[in-house]
Amino acid sequence: MAIATINPATGETVKEFTPHDAAETDRRIGEAQAAFEALHHTTFAERAAWMRAAADLVEADADELARILTLEMGKPLAQAKAEALKCAKNMRFYAEHAEGFLADEPLADPSSVGASRAYARYQPLGVVLAVMPWNYPLWQVIRFAAPALMAGNTGVLKHASNVPQAALYLDTVFERGGFPVGSFRALLIGSREVEAVIRDPRVKAVTLTGSEPAGRSVASIAGAEIKKSVMELGGSDPFIVMPSADLEAAAAKAVTARVQNNGQSCIAAKRFLVHSEVYDAFAALFAEKMRALVVGDPTDAATDVGPVATASGRDDLAELVDDAIAKGATVLAGGKAVEGPGWFYEPTLLTDLSDDMRIVLEETFGPVASLYRFESREEALRIANQTTFGLSSAVWTTDAADEEYFVRELEAGAVFINGMTISYPELPFGGIKASGFGRELAAEGIREFCNVKTVWKG
Questions:
Q1: Claim to verify: residue 205 and residue 333 sit in the same structural domain
Q2: pLDDT tens, 206-215?
Q3: Strands 269-275 vs 237-241: parallel, antiparallel or unpaired
């Protein structure tokens, strides 16, 4: 795949970029290693000042960054700007909290281990490779980079090949904030070059956000090299509506949860499970709101849903929908690609789904929702847990017993009650099963790429 900016709203190739060859890649990893030698000897206060300065730059550049994100992957302009501002918030969060998250943890009673003092200390590992996707070109990177740099690590970034301008911005913003030269370096390389970077002895760990196949490949290489890895992979998140739910609020939030970022989010709700007592009413509301969405130019403020980011992505989405329709699914809204230039797909709602349809078990990465009817919470749980994924989930109920049941039984990294899944700097983020392992954000995220060193003193 060429490293290029291709406008998904038109299909036009805007600009191509020369990939880094092996020598340039080696040089950039060397810069990151040299920066680590300097950075891990700095204080939290110094790193916090640089991180806040970099956050100021991101805020100042937010309008231009929004234009780049919309151009490269098609998200509506307002959502693109919101992504940039969320990044700045995350950077400031770690500037403020990193020292506390990584403070020495003393054993309350060191005499129990025959010591006068015993504690755990968190220390950085070194250069960490980040392999990142195109759907949140800034946020996916910053949620790793901010804690990693605040811990004293440095990073090299293999970004998706269709968001090179976002990658090159990230290549400079930390240095502009004051971090040592080379603290974060973008590698303009293809997927085939990733293995060599993982195996480079200067690279101590790897984090990947992306597809399940990509995660299996990268994790296996990291495992062979005995290097730490964090995997945030796909999701097919359930959105469960119980009889006690506020249906109007649930339907409105269901639409946002499905079509935000043009439906291209690992944590987007994708399967909507509704109790039979309220199914008809909810389905009518959901379908009406999906049909009312405006699909079009993502730079137009009136647009709700822009294009799918790549032609292949839209084709994959269409194949899943067409397979379901051919096998008997009912279309309540949408159901086909939009004719004309660009890679647009109608906001779609399908029901009457059966287990022989691919869409039941595979991830839909675009504005397509699947609607299921259930008779009991036990049946809802069976449907929710039947996929190989376990990223997040949402449950709409005002019944305390139902709430506790789903919190306890759902196989997911998160459960959101009467809301939709959102990642917050304050809360750990990640999945189980084929959705990956490890955690980002909160204290857990900054500790992932640290050596937890036990210190014992007699």
A1: no
A2: 999 999 999 9
A3: parallel
CA–CA dist 324, 370 (Å, integer): 10
Full residue range of the structural domain in which residue 152 is found: 4-233+435-457
What per-residue confidence (pLDDT) applies to 282? Answer: 98
* C-alpha 415, offset from chain centre: 16
Q: Do residue 293 and residue 164 come from a single domain?
A: no
Q: 31, 83, 232, 363: which one is catalytic? A: 232
- Report CA 418 to chain centroid distance, whole Å: 21
Q: Could you give the CA distance from residue 167 to residue 112 in angstroms, rounded to a whole number?
A: 50
Domain count, the chain: 2
User: Residue 1 pLDDT more than 80?
Assistant: no
Active-site annotation holder among 31, 72, 83, 266: 266
pLDDT band for position 50 (cuts 50, 70, 90):
very high
Q: Position 184: which residue type? A: F
Give the CATH number, domain containing residue 59.
3.40.605.10
Residues 141, 199 within the same domain: yes
Domain containing residue 355: CATH number: 3.40.309.10
Whether 412 and 451 share a structural domain:
no
pTM listed for this prediction? 0.97
Decide: 316 and 355 in contact? Cβ < 8 Å: no
- Asked about 87 being catalytic, the answer comes back as no
* Residue pair 286/251 in contact by the 8 Å Cβ criterion: yes
Active-site residue flag, 232: yes
C-alpha 249, offset from chain centre: 25
CA 87 to each of CA 99, 267, 269: distance values in angstroms, whole numbers, following the listed order: 19, 17, 22
